[in-house]
Design goal:
The complex is a heterodimer of chains A (253) and B (363).
Chain A lengths: L28 H16 L5 E4 L15 E3 L6 H11 L4 E7 H7 L1 H10 L4 E6 L2 E2 L5 E2 L18 H4 L5 H5 L5 E8 L3 H19 L4 E7 L3 H4 L3 H15 L3 E5 L4
Parallel strand pairs in A: 1-2, 1-3, 3-4, 4-8, 7-8
Antiparallel strand pairs in A: 5-6, 7-9
Helix pairs in contact in A: 1-7, 3-4
Chain B lengths: L5 E4 H11 L4 E4 L7 H12 L3 E4 L3 H13 L4 E5 L1 H17 L3 E7 L15 H5 L11 E2 L4 H18 L2 E7 H5 L1 E4 L27 E2 L6 H21 L3 E4 L6 E4 L2 H16 L4 E6 L1 E3 L3 H11 L1 E6 L5 H9 L4 E6 L8 H13 L6 E3 L2
Parallel strand pairs in B: 2-3, 2-4, 4-5, 5-7, 6-7, 11-12, 11-14, 14-15
Antiparallel strand pairs in B: 1-8, 6-13, 10-12, 15-16
Helix pairs in contact in B: 1-2, 1-6, 3-4, 9-12, 10-11
The chains are: A alpha/beta (253), B alpha/beta (363).
The complex binds thiamine diphosphate and iron/sulfur cluster (SF4).
Chain lengths: 253, 363
């Protein structure tokens, strides 16, 4: 499309994403989260300095989609691996991208301690309230009443314990400079999520400390909902347990 | 220039040697009997502009090493037996991702929490994998402070050369004992061989990814064949062992690490009585010096194995020697450190074949 013909480019591929089709289900929040990460890295000129750590979870193959250096971490250990990278190469931009099982169950210790040490790492926390990759088992973040293959009849606090709000928990750590919870389930929400991702990245560029964006992310497949109903479930049900908004911000931006 | 002769304890020796070998990243979690190593490095890394992290666990620590290694650093972690058990997942990932790194295990008694006395009970864990999957870890077993210093350099070189985690296997006694050491020349970090696979940000090149997951069965098959080729090469090229006074020996003692030091003194005691015994000391426990041991054992005809476990390295001796020689075994678990005279009793009994100390192993 040439400018002479009166067209101007308003949307295109981001350089930080490879030209590969993803394996994510239709309506999955991971695709949107990838796009947000990529747009922000492009806009901030960070791609060539980025070293990313994908999780074990549905985004385990993220290195097939992200167009920058990446190293796989064992399940839950992304923030320990990211700590090693950032300390070894403090001048690089280090990104940890994790699901809720990864970050808030098996990796809880790594999450809390990386946050508390104030590691200068940007973390994307994809909370879909379920174990996506393994097929819909209860996650630490599964909300009360929500069906899971290991919580038949819905999560019952007496049987299964309560959902964990790890973002709120780690916001009490001094090393944490910024935490915001956003939804990926409407255009308006996605625009807000992008602002949060940018801010989370800027905090690392300015070497302020640990920053995290929690993204409430639809998993239509394991929620057994259509993509459209999954969006509604995020914004109507999930937000009651995980209210949207800034949880902590000492960045001064 | 090599250092002057210094009197140092084993744990400090490893720390100093690691820094001199270009290691600039250490992460670990406290556990006795190896705390002197992280304590030493917590100060020493600051002096050389390196990183020391006291991780929140052994799991976190090995994964920090994985991260630093992926970014091209010479990186190390250390622990003792229960902590090494926790590191196995990370070691398996590093093997799968072909990431270099050095893991030090100053073994203590087990199973479980066991005790903090010297042990050789992690031999299987170290040499047979420990973590999941078809992988091998080179295992270096020094027998004293000077060798600890030298072998730490070897460990980092092997790790980089073959892109593999490498384990240094000592024990609680070795970590504590003070001996004179001369350190090799410090290496310049900038002059270490470039790592063309390391993650440095993709400026001017295609992005790199380091991973162990290969969902496609053919791809994982190929990856495992590739790893096996590497392990075959290591087996062919990197076996290390020492023999002492074996030329005229009528009994071949096989021991590694601290037990080998005790065995050496026991052999001297026998020699003073006119009994000709010799020592075969494996230095690489994987790859095990199978053929050299086989040839020597077949020539001498009688083998006496002594270790700080109920018979773990023994299995490698049996694999090597088979029925080419009589094999006698004496194992001491639980952290009991025998005197050379105790071991001399076993060796005399093995020579006679009277079964009074230790036992005959049928093959
Ligand atoms: C040590 C270990 N335990 C369990 C698993 C199996 N496993 C793979 S992904 C996963 C959970 C994924 O859930 P989540 O982190 O919420 O990410 P999602 O797939 O929902 O994006 C589990 C339990 C594993 N790979 N490794
Ligand atoms: S299972 Fe859920 S989280 Fe995984 S790709 Fe499908 S929709 Fe996304």
């Amino acid at each position: 499309m040439s400018a002479e013909a009166g067209y101007k480019k308003v949307f295109g591929r981001t350089e930080s994403l490879k030209n590969n089709p993803t394996h994510y289900c239709p309506g999955c929040g991971h695709s949107i989260a990838h796009r947000l990460v990529a747009e922000c890295l492009d806009e901030m000129g960070l791609r060539e300095d980025t070293i990313g750590v994908p999780p074990v979870g549905c985004a385990v193959l993220a290195y097939n989609y992200f167009n920058f250096d990446m190293v796989e971490a064992p399940h839950g250990r992304a923030l320990a691996v990211a700590t090693g990278i950032k300390r070894a190469r403090p001048e690089k931009f280090v990104l940890s991208y994790q699901g809720d099982g990864d970050l808030a169950a098996i990796g809880t210790a790594e999450t809390i301690h990386a946050a508390n040490r104030g590691e200068e790492i940007s973390t994307l926390f994809i909370n879909n309230a379920i174990y996506g990759m393994t097929g819909g088992q209860m996650a630490p973040t599964t909300v009360l009443g929500q069906e899971a293959t290991t919580a038949p009849g819905g999560r019952d606090p007496k049987l299964h314990g309560r959902p964990i709000d790890i973002s709120l928990m780690i916001s009490h750590c001094d090393g944490v400079v910024y935490i915001e919870r956003c939804s990926l389930a409407s255009l308006k929400h996605i625009r807000q999520a992008k602002k949060a991702v940018r801010k989370c990245f800027q905090a690392q560029v300015d070497r302020l400390g640990f920053a995290l964006v929690e993204l409430l992310s639809p998993c239509p497949t394991n929620w057994k909902l259509s993509p459209k109903d999954a969006w509604a479930w995020v914004n109507e049900v999930m937000v009651k347990t995980y209210p949207l908004g800034v949880i902590k911000d000492t960045t001064g931006y | 220039m090599p250092s002057e002769k210094m009197l140092m304890r084993g744990s400090h020796v490893v720390g100093e040697a690691a820094v001199r070998a270009g290691c600039r990243f250490y992460a670990g979690y406290p556990i006795t009997p190896q705390n002197e190593l992280p304590e030493y490095l917590s100060a020493r890394m600051l002096e050389v502009g390196g990183t020391f992290i006291q991780g929140e666990s052994e799991i976190a620590s090995i994964n920090m090493v994985l991260g630093a290694a992926s970014a091209g650093m010479r990186a190390m972690t250390s622990s003792s037996s229960p902590g090494i058990a926790l590191k196995q997942e990370g070691i398996s990932y590093m093997a799968g991702q072909e990431l270099p790194g050095v893991i030090v295990n100053m073994m203590r008694g087990g199973p479980g929490l066991g005790n903090i006395a010297p042990s050789g009970a992690d031999y299987f864990q170290a040499t047979r994998g420990g973590g999941n999957g078809d992988y091998r870890t080179p295992v270096l077993a020094p027998a004293g402070c000077q060798e600890l210093a030298d072998i730490t350099f070897v460990a980092f070189d092997l790790a980089d050369k073959y892109r593999t985690p490498v384990m240094i296997l000592g024990d609680g006694l070795m970590g504590q004992v003070m001996e004179p050491v001369v350190f090799p020349d410090p290496l310049k970090v900038e002059s270490l061989p470039k790592k063309e696979w390391a993650l440095t940000g993709c400026k001017g090149r295609e992005p790199r990814a380091l991973f162990s997951m290969l969902l496609n069965v053919n791809a994982l098959y190929e990856h495992n064949l590739h790893l096996q080729e590497k392990y075959d090469e290591i087996t062919a090229e990197e076996q290390r062992w020492e023999t002492i006074m074996t030329d005229d020996a009528g009994l071949l003692v096989v021991a590694y690490g601290t037990p080998a030091r005790i065995a050496e003194s026991a052999i001297e005691e026998l020699r003073a009585e006119g009994i000709a015994a010799g020592l075969f000391r494996p230095i690489t426990l994987w790859p095990y010096p199978t053929i050299p041991l086989r040839n020597l054992a077949a020539k001498i005809g009688k083998v006496a194995v002594f270790e700080f476990s109920m018979g773990q390295m023994l299995e490698d001796v049996v694999l090597a020697v088979g029925d080419r020689a009589e094999i006698y075994f004496y194992g001491l678990p639980g952290g009991i450190v025998p005197t050379p005279s105790d071991i001399a009793l076993f060796l005399r009994s093995a020579l006679k074949g009277d079964g009074k100390v230790g036992r005959r192993i049928e093959t």
